[in-house]
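ok new one. same drill as before - structure tokens go in, u give me an amino acid for every spot. 557 of them this time. try not to just spam alanines like last time pls lmao
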């Protein structure tokens, strides 16, 4: 699309028009100003304040805002005006772009859009034929999306196509590619939303825009991947919000105090728990690289599934965002395996004080790296009554990282020379992380990702040494088709537990046909993760864990 020099340069900041149903529809709150934060590549660059008004005479959206570089836009006053049936009436804008005046007035009549005004250094005059129900958009004026959200909530269908007029350039077609229901948690409040994936068919090519709309039709967020641009409602833009990937019956959002910050978590209660009953509780821990409490890996909500199974077995389950992720405070870049174990101990103390929790029956269950954190927390915290290690490695962090790299390289079928080069680089990185020396010739991005307190703590972790101080009953669960942490690990780890730990009960369950994600698989290779039809943790895994927990808790008086 040809661009006018006074317009803000965004790839596809257009607006979608949709037909109106005669039936009553959910309506966004009107006559109330709502703020939206604007982010470019994750950095806040501005804010816009939008007020919708709707009455018998029609629908009006007024806006003011300011965006810093590189947009450099100040909106002194903007107004979008429609008839009650969403036929466009007019658009007015009084703004500055890069310090130059931008004033536009567009009117709609008889299937034509006519624009007059002034831009930086030039007069503006344009006229185009448009669809009767086209919707108005001006680049850089994000109030357009507030109207879009309201219309999407009133009527939308997957696959539908609609017209959008970009003032004062041209009319384009927009297609609704997908519609997906989600939940967003803000503090302890849960919002039901719908996420629309829209395809803008521009003259220069198709561009994707994701629009999230609340159930009442209010705009929640807009994401334009090609521009790394996000427009997010103020409350959702805060650090206390998260998109809920998965929810169980009995889920309750909670906040848990830790060492200098709060942990955002979800407590899942049994549906039929009797009042005034003290229940066993299980703290669930995610694998490495997974910060969200649902433990989503390749579309599998590992921890959310485990929490559901725990609650269905009559126990409380707690899953939480790792520090520095989601709704949890703290700094992820400085967190170590030891820090994660201390966070678990904070959750134990919080559970112990709850009137619905039996303080003598609190267990931890971790997946992957979470298994290591579970063992370390249990070694430090005697109030933990039982430990479940799921797909936990038996070797040191250095050995585990190199083994997993070799397994991944085998799947890539690279020439032997290139494979050895990558292994040599990984060994160099590991040594540099541990000694602080030898970073020469390591790519800067690789060093940035590896030279962290967390990776150093991971490399130095040795589960066999931690087991020396574990006294609690232990269950080791492993998928027979696990190719990331091969099943031989559970044999070595459980053997060490029997010989070196102070635990009087060590049990092992190897689940046939299950991979590292804990789902049914064919080969277990990582290359098939994206094609597996079942995205839920295997019932064989959840039953092995919950049956053992019930048996172990029953023996505690």
């Amino acid at each position: 699309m040809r661009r006018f020099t006074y317009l803000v340069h965004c790839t596809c900041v257009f607006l979608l028009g949709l037909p109106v149903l005669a039936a009553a529809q959910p309506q966004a709150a009107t006559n109330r100003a709502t703020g939206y934060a604007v982010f470019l590549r994750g950095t806040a660059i501005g804010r816009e304040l939008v007020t919708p008004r709707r009455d018998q005479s029609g629908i009006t959206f007024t806006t003011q805002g300011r965006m810093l570089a590189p947009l450099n836009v100040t909106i002194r006053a903007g107004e979008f005006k429609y008839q009650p049936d969403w036929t466009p009436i007019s658009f007015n804008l009084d703004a500055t772009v890069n310090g130059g005046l931008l004033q536009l007035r567009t009117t709609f009549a008889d299937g034509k859009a006519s624009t007059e005004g002034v831009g930086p250094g030039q007069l503006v005059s344009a006229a185009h034929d448009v669809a009767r129900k086209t919707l108005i958009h001006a680049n850089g004026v994000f109030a357009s999306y507030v109207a879009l959200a309201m219309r999407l909530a009133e009527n939308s269908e997957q696959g539908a196509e609609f017209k959008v007029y970009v003032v004062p350039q041209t009319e384009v077609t927009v297609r609704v590619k997908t519609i997906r229901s989600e939940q967003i948690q803000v503090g302890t409040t849960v919002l039901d939303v719908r996420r629309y994936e829209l395809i803008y068919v521009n003259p220069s090519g198709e561009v994707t825009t994701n629009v999230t709309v609340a159930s009442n039709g209010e705009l929640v967020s807009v994401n334009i991947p090609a521009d790394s641009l996000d427009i997010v409602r103020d409350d959702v833009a805060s650090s206390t919000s998260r998109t809920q990937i998965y929810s169980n019956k009995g889920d309750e959002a909670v906040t848990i105090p830790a060492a200098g910050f709060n942990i955002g978590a979800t407590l899942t209660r049994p549906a039929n728990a009797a009042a005034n009953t003290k229940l066993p509780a299980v703290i669930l821990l995610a694998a490495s690289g997974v910060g969200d409490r649902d433990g989503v890996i390749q579309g599998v909500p590992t921890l959310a599934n485990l929490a559901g199974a725990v609650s269905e077995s009559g126990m409380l389950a707690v899953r939480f965002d790792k520090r520095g992720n989601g709704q949890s405070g703290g700094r992820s870049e400085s967190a170590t395996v030891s820090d994660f174990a201390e966070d678990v101990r904070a959750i134990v103390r919080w559970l112990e004080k709850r009137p619905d929790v039996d303080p003598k029956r609190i267990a931890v269950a971790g997946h992957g790296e979470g298994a290591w954190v579970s063992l370390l927390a249990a070694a430090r915290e005697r109030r933990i009554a039982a430990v479940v290690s799921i797909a936990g490695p038996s070797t040191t962090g250095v050995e585990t990282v190199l083994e997993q790299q070799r397994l991944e390289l085998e799947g890539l079928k690279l020439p032997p020379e290139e494979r050895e080069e990558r292994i040599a680089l990984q060994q160099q990185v590991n040594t540099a992380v541990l000694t602080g020396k030898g970073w020469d010739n390591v790519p800067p991005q690789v060093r940035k990702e590896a030279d962290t307190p967390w990776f150093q703590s991971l490399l130095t972790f040795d589960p066999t040494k931690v087991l020396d101080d574990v006294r609690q009953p232990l269950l080791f669960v492993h998928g027979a088709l696990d190719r990331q942490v091969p099943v031989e690990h559970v044999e070595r780890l459980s053997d060490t537990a029997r010989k070196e730990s102070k635990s009087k009960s060590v049990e092992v369950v190897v689940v046939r046909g299950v991979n590292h994600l804990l789902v049914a698989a064919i080969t277990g290779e990582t290359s098939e993760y994206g094609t597996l039809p079942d995205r839920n943790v295997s019932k064989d895994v959840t039953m092995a864990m919950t049956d053992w927990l019930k048996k172990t808790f029953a023996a505690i008086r």
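The longest strand covers residues 170-186. and btw The CA atoms of residues 397 and 458 lie 5 Å apart.
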